[in-house]
Write a structure and sequence with these properties.
- This protein folds into two domains: 49 residues, Rubrerythrin, domain 2, CATH 2.20.28; 35 residues.
- The chain is rod-shaped, with a radius of gyration of 24 Å.
- The protein starts with a strand and ends with a helix.
- Helix content is 35%, strand content 17%.
- The longest helix is centred in the C-terminal third of the chain and has 31 residues.
- By secondary structure, it is of the alpha+beta class.
- The chain is built from one helix and three strands.
- Bound molecules: zinc ion (ZN).
- Zinc ion (ZN) binds next to loops.
Length: 89
């Protein structure tokens, strides 16, 4: 059974609901907000389905950024080593 995620348009509360059947967002009746009982809720794409061709994987993006920052912090030290060697020679 799929778990759908919803967001309340009235109060912004996010909640998930286990569905008995697979339904498209157009066909289903949106559930009431458990926080404020508003019927103005909309289905949102679950964060678990990100990644692949549909969008970037947040973990992958964080890893890439980490690598870039590491590289940026290493480069000046390597330059200094180069200068030191050049001075010795
Ligand atoms: Zn609400």
């Amino acid at each position: 059974m799929p778990i759908y995620e919803y967001r309340c348009k009235t109060c912004g509360h996010r909640f998930s609901r286990l569905s008995r059947v697979v339904v498209s967002a157009d066909e289903e009746t949106p559930p009431l907000c458990p926080s404020c009982s508003s019927a103005e809720t909309m289905r949102v794409v679950s964060s678990f389905s990100w990644g692949g061709p549909s969008g970037p994987d947040p973990q992958e993006v964080a890893y890439q950024r980490q690598q870039e920052e590491r590289l940026a912090s290493i480069t000046p030290r390597e330059k200094i080593e180069e200068w030191r060697k050049a001075r010795k020679d």
